[in-house]
Amino acid sequence: MDMNRLRDHMVEHHVVRRGIRDQSVIRAMRIVPREKFVDPGFEEFAYEDAPLSIGEGQTISQPFIVALMIEKAHLGAGDKVLEVGTGSGYASALISRIARHVYTIERHERLALQARERFEKLGYRNLDVRVGDGSKGWTNAAPFDAIIVSAGAPEVPAGLKEQLDLGGRLIIPVGRSDEQRLKRITRTGASTFEEEDLGGVLFVPLIGEDAWTTTHPMYT
Ligand code: SAM
């Protein structure tokens, strides 16, 4: 199977034709091999525009949504970025091809270790992976130019807003699973933030101290 051809087709049909314009995002999607971020045996489905199971009840997100979130974060080449919810590592890998450095945090140890191994195999060196609760952010590495949260929170965690640099952007799905909205929060001053609604989405829950509890009825 010619993965390069499938990848180009996916980018053309599910990313460019659906309105993604940021050339750095399109370029990253053309070079990061999504087939290396899915479970063995699922490579042939890697270039469909759909989420896929990665174990632990989690998913690698749909390519279009990943592209949209990264585009909306307005990343620059010098940016330091936090991704909360490493999962397979695919979104972090894309971000690492655009920004200066990526910090990525995942609550499931197996997924975090697997993602780290994938980055090493691909020779992607500008990423740090940690196991932990990303609803609290990554204090030691803050402030960030952008934070992308790849799981849905009940509300915007205050700690994540605080870890944005001035002008920094936080992209986060917020709300119950049946009414989740993608938000962009931009830090406009020491204690001022601007919030925009970017549309409806459906993500697995962000589970942590400043997020849903594992027993929340919307997600059990
Ligand atoms: N970005 C990932 C990718 O490209 O494969 C997909 C992320 S998946 C939709 C959401 C991930 O968020 C899951 O792997 C889940 O375990 C993780 N997660 C949920 N709550 C978290 C938390 N508080 N801290 C860190 N990771 C969390």
UniProtKB/TrEMBL annotation:
This is Protein-L-isoaspartate O-methyltransferase. Belongs to the methyltransferase superfamily. L-isoaspartyl/D-aspartyl protein methyltransferase family. It is found in: Cytoplasm. The lineage of its organism: Bacteria, Pseudomonadati, Pseudomonadota, Alphaproteobacteria, Hyphomicrobiales. The active site is at S61. Catalyzes the methyl esterification of L-isoaspartyl residues in peptides and proteins that result from spontaneous decomposition of normal L-aspartyl and L-asparaginyl residues. It plays a role in the repair and/or degradation of damaged proteins.
